[in-house]
Amino acid sequence: MAAFIESGWEYLITHFSEFQLASVGTFLLHESVFFLSGLPFMVLERAGFLSKYKIQSKSNTFDAQGRCVLRLMFYHICVNLPVMLASYPVFKRMGLRTTLPLPPWDVVLTQILFYFILEDFLFYWGHRVLHTKWLYKHVHSVHHEYATPFGLTSEYAHPAEILFLGFATILGPALTGPHLFTLWLWMVLRVLETVEAHCGYQFPWSLSHYIPLYGGSHFHDYHHRVLYTKSGNYSSTFTYMDWLYGTDRATGR
């Protein structure tokens, strides 16, 4: 497997520049993972499949889903892509590299664990700030337009929020100057996690059943369906920050 991955990586760095991979390549990978993992939940909701695992009985209309997709495409092209293009010099200065050999797995996994811990801490406080009255009304309320979330609503947010909370996701990699392979793996895991948290379904195979302190869909769905001043459950991936600061709320799991 390692040889196969390195062979594929060698093809990439031979045919594309570091800038192309770190900016456009990152954007295309993000879009692919995000939409391929999120669209199936939209289809499930529309078709009514696996409804016994759906957390809320309510469903979004086709128009509401379509509006979400169109606005996401606009934000991704007009906000996410320019940020990825502009951030390359910063990551390069901090030590980003694309060369072979790929970093050993213990380094990759240690860095990603650090990213999760740091992102959880920063996201929690950033999210709580967004639930103050003025910021909620003018910024965060966009994300909460969908009280019944589905996978793609995970990135449906005001541009200011995209930049504000996105800082929590990129700070870890910016501090460690990782290999682009590590950065890509972190991004894939983070996208899959947030799509799952917003998917609206709690399956028997959901990770929250198997990973201690993992929030998952039930935890975050509660955050969306109650009044913003009483929601709690502000954490990103794991729930320990809510537990420590007394903002964890009953989810009916």
From TrEMBL:
Q: Does the keyword Endoplasmic reticulum apply?
A: yes
Q: Where is the signal peptide?
A: none
Which top EC class is given? Answer: lyase
Key word Transmembrane helix present: yes
Keywords, A to Z?
Endoplasmic reticulum, Lyase, Membrane, Transmembrane, Transmembrane helix
Q: Name one GO cellular component term.
A: endoplasmic reticulum membrane
| Family to which the UniProt record says this protein belongs | Belongs to the sterol desaturase family.
Question: What is the protein named?
Answer: aldehyde oxygenase (deformylating)
Q: What is the organism of origin for this protein?
A: Spirodela intermedia
